[in-house]
Design a protein that fits this description.
Chain lengths: ~425, ~250
């Protein structure tokens, strides 16, 4: 036991004297959480508050043109500018990036709707023998978009235009219907001008337990980047192991009485403590630092035990992976490149950058191989779903097994490497 | 004390013998020199003696214990000084020595006292709390040696213990090693410093292309082969000069 203690002290001293390593371990992840959360938060704000500048050329000058402009404005996502009337000028402005999109409503658009709707109503009131099949003329509303804007923004514009065009069609349909009824009955038909919206959408978050946690950029980013930071321990840990081999101290250790497990055990203890400190630092950043930048404060859920055990299991998995890379890699370059690239791939698969549910089905299936996904899911259970330890048990078990698996491979790989010399 | 019984080594992915059917007996209290040029097989023999990997065939016995079955017991009575400076550069000399002492099974206080003793003996006391990376080559070599003798081993394995340092530091190291030997520690030493080996070793073996071509007491071997010194004997037997003299 005293060998393990001595080894732990040595690992600790080596670690605290590696200043660049400490920066990678602590400052970079904290900076990452702040920057990414700020960027994501401001991106959401840019949609909801900053508004996208859209040019509108209304050649219709009738109900449709007016309503579409009003509709886009009412949606709250767009800032409508009608100053430009020429298509070529609008195209140039959008191409230059001054406006994100331009909507060109053709002249006579409202008339086309009227022409399309009128025969439909007339057919309704005509005898069966006189009913005719009518062809409909289409209105071509042109949408010019800046190539740099995302697909979701383009879809938002089209969706709004479709909604308000449908509303205008309905309004015109009702107007013609009332005229027809007036002709038939001789009395003025008092139909409502515009049908009221009968559906109200009530959004409620499906929590496992009652809570006041609200999903926001902080609740999403803190656990995601905590997992990422924990797994980035692979670089200093693998570097430490390779350095030990290169300077010969590992050789000396192998000639000394004692098990290789002592060497692995001491590294596990020290680097596990580091991952735990990273976790605490990230939580504190979420609670105290992010609000200083105007970001939402982090709520850590109600099951602290589940949170701590998740952090412990995630840390162990990260250390196991670092030990494996440090054992298999033969040079700093190999460990550095393979370690960082593999963590980025595992992070991408695990949903750190992009949510797993939004990935293609094949990638969703592949994502379950990523230990970062298990850790993230377990953190989300606590942070976002207000779940308990029971809900996180499958992920925690997987993380612990991952550590056992990677540590065992590292141990046997090292043993067999020497025996096979 | 040490018996190498017909040991051979063929490395993986190689068909050639790195070491071929070597048999050596080393008595307790001897300073045995394993001499040869680079690539002759010295480090392979040294690594097998340390228990780093087993011989492909044959066996090594230390105090009648087989290296194949009693490695952990053998490690307890053996001290190793590798050719590389096998120390942690960001730790101080004292931190390094206490750590390695404890890995040899010493208690913390004991490791501290013995480290202080040896640091003092080698004139390193006032640098004990300086990081190894700030040390000169000679200071590093001395600390590297101390790390292998903290537990007062019965058998000391030295791989080029004084390579690449100034003459004064080399002399200090070799003098201390003789003192250690006088107190009963058997020493196996590899080197290509033949002049040093001639003065230092009680017995030698010359290894070339993985095979021992001659072994015995240096003075007797020189006399029997009608040579003036070990250097001349070595050249006569191998047709090569050691790297040091080349």
């Amino acid at each position: 036991m005293h060998k393990l203690k001595a080894s732990v002290i040595k690992e600790f001293l080596v670690l605290i004297r590696d200043i660049p390593g400490l920066i990678i371990l602590f400052l970079m992840p904290a900076a990452m959480i702040i920057v990414v959360t700020l960027v994501q938060d401001s991106t959401l704000k840019s949609i909801n508050e900053n508004k996208i500048k859209v040019l509108c050329i209304d050649n219709d000058n009738d109900i449709l043109g007016k309503s579409l402009k009003e509709g886009l404005l009412k949606s709250g996502f767009f800032d409508i500018d009608s100053a430009i009337t020429e298509y070529s000028e609008a195209k140039a402005k959008v191409a230059s990036g001054k406006y994100r999109a331009a909507v060109v409503i053709p002249s006579g658009a409202t008339d086309i709707i009227r022409k399309n709707v009128k025969p439909v109503i007339e057919n309704m009131f005509s005898p069966e023998s006189k009913k005719q099949k009518k062809s409909f003329e289409k209105i071509k509303i042109q949408i010019l978009t800046d190539p740099t804007i995302k697909k979701t923004f383009r879809q938002a514009i089209i969706s709004n235009l479709q909604t308000y065009t449908a509303k205008i069609e309905t309004r015109i349909l009702f107007k013609i219907l009332s005229e027809q009824l007036e002709n038939l009955t001789g009395s003025k038909a008092e139909l409502f001008d515009e049908p009221a919206e009968t559906a109200e959408f009530v959004e409620t978050f499906a929590y496992k337990q009652k809570t006041n946690i609200k999903p926001d950029s902080t609740q999403h980013n803190v656990p995601a980047w905590t997992m990422f930071a924990m797994f980035f321990i692979v670089i200093p840990l693998a570097g430490n192991m390779i350095h030990e081999r290169e300077n010969g101290s590992f050789f000396r250790l192998l000639t000394m009485p004692g098990s290789y497990l002592t060497v692995l055990g001491s590294k596990t203890i020290v680097y596990l403590a580091v991952t735990f400190l990273q976790f605490v630092l990230m939580i504190l950043t979420g609670i105290f630092i992010l609000p200083l930048f105007g970001l939402p404060v982090l709520h850590i859920g109600s099951d602290i035990t589940a949170l701590l055990i998740t952090a412990f299991a995630s840390g162990l998995a990260a250390v196991g992976y670092g030990i494996l890379v440090g054992t298999v890699a033969e040079t700093h370059e190999q460990a550095g490149v393979f370690g960082s690239v593999s963590v980025i791939i595992l992070a991408s698969l695990g949903g750190i950058w992009f949510p797993v549910y939004a990935m293609p089905p094949v990638m969703q299936k592949i994502s379950i191989i990523s230990p970062l996904n298990w850790g993230l899911e377990s953190f989300y259970n606590v942070f976002l779903r207000n779940g308990s330890l029971t809900n996180s048990l499958p992920q925690i078990t997987a993380l612990l097994l991952f550590f056992v698996f990677t540590a065992a491979i590292s141990y046997f790989y090292e043993q067999s490497k020497r025996l096979k010399l | 004390m040490v018996k190498l019984e017909n040991i051979s080594k063929i490395y993986k992915h190689s068909t050639e013998f790195a070491v071929k059917e070597i048999s050596v007996k080393i008595k307790k209290g001897e300073i045995f020199g394993l001499l040869g040029t680079n690539g002759a097989g010295k480090t392979t023999v040294f690594s097998m003696l340390c228990g780093l990997f087993p011989p492909t065939s044959g066996n090594i016995f230390i105090n009648n214990m087989s290296i194949r079955t009693n490695l952990s017991d053998i490690k307890k009575i053996t001290g190793t000084v590798p050719q590389n400076i096998a120390l942690y550069p960001t730790l101080t000399a004292k931190e390094n020595l206490i750590f390695f002492g404890r890995m040899y099974g010493l208690r913390k206080k004991e490791a501290e006292e013995i480290s202080n003793f040896w640091l003092n003996k080698f004139g390193l006391s006032k640098y004990a709390n300086k990081k190894i990376k700030t040390y000169s080559g000679g200071m590093k070599r001395k600390t590297n040696l101390i790390a292998g003798i903290l537990h007062n081993p019965e058998l000391l394995l030295l791989d080029e213990p004084a390579v690449g340092i100034d003459a004064r530091s080399r002399l200090e190291i070799m003098t201390e090693l003789k003192e250690i030997n006088k107190k009963g520690t058997t020493i196996i030493y590899t080197s290509h410093y033949l002049e040093e080996a001639e003065n230092f070793c009680t017995d030698i073996a010359v290894i070339d292309k993985g095979e021992i071509i001659i072994q015995g007491k240096p003075s007797e071997l020189i006399k029997n082969e009608n040579c003036r010194n070990l250097e001349e004997l070595f050249f006569k037997l191998t047709g090569k000069e050691t790297k040091h003299n080349a």
